[in-house]
Each structure stands twice: as C-alpha cells, then as structure tokens.
C-alpha cells in the first residue's frame, strides 16, 4: 500500500491523500482519487487526467516550493503547466509499480500526482416558452 498526495490543478485547497496498492493500475488510481476527493470531483473517473509531480532531477515535488504553494491556492505556474502536458499523461492501463519505478518512496510534504479535471457539467437556466426547459444542462450538444 502506498500513500500518494494528489492536488487538483486549478482548484484551491484541493490537496488530499489517496491510499492505493502499488500492484494496481493507473485507472484504479483514477477511481480512488474520485472516491477519496470528498466530492470535489464529480466527472466520471475515466475523464481524469493524471500526471506525476516530479522535479527536473526526478524527485517528488516538495510542498515547500513556490510552485506547490501557488498550486494549493488554485494557481498554475509555468512549471505545473509543463508537468501537465498531454505527452506526460499517465495511461489508465499502466501499472502503478511501473509508473513509480525508480522514484523515491512517497513521503510527507510532497505532492505526487497532479490531477486535471475536465470542465464539469453545470446546470444553468435557459430561456424557454413557459419555462419548460429552464433548468437544462448547459454544454449539451446541439445540432445546427
């Protein structure tokens, strides 16, 4: 069992820990992150994008750095943007032990996983004749 500290990129106060067996896959980690996010994440778990929070020298991102301090405030620095580039995304079918291979064991005062959540569906009123559709889902696909 490994304890990973995760942070949702762009969401203030969203750092939390997740316990998971290293023998599981990244997809299982996505499920665990959603389940243990205390309601912060409402999109389906397969939509989550995960990235290792590691420094240029291959170590874990320290909670004492300015990048992490800003991350915890919901800000995204150039370094965090670089870590969350598409080609760095962890794949659901990858085993965690392979992803973590060669890394120091995770410990306190570190961030281990950066979580990018796609825009979540929101409910917004729309104008309709007689109010029939006043609370339809915004962002729903339409055909022109």
UniProtKB/TrEMBL annotation:
The keyword Signal applies. One of its GO terms (cellular component) is extracellular region. Residues 1-15 form the signal peptide. Residues 2-116 form the Crinkler effector protein N-terminal domain. It comes from the Eukaryota. Keywords: Secreted, Signal. It is found in: Host cell; Secreted. Pfam families: Crinkler. Transmembrane segments: none annotated. This is Crinkler effector protein N-terminal domain-containing protein. The lineage of its organism: Eukaryota, Sar, Stramenopiles, Oomycota, Peronosporomycetes.
